[in-house]
Amino acid sequence: MKTIFTSILLFGILLFSAQNLQDTITLKRALVEKEGISYYVYDKNEACLFTKLNTTSQKEEIMLVCYGDLYETYLATDKKKIEKIALRDAIKNIDNPKKFEEIIALTDF
Q: Residue ranges per domain, the chain?
């Protein structure tokens, strides 16, 4: 019985920690359009993660590779078009939110 209680308590703490992580991490987000394709750039401490908008599902797909010209377009983006977004709000737009959150949380990219 004591083991079950401890397991439930640890599970609750992990859930709280994950929710707290989503609330405390803030990213910069910008829309970059290149050759008719919409990309989003998520910036955390001047390191970027890129996503590509899937026009069918209207969800963003994580890009595992960063292209230099796409990054240069992001750097040239008007700063007024860059918004701050909480991680919990950002993952609502991602086709694989768990993977996105893991990349953000487990690496200091």
A: 26-106
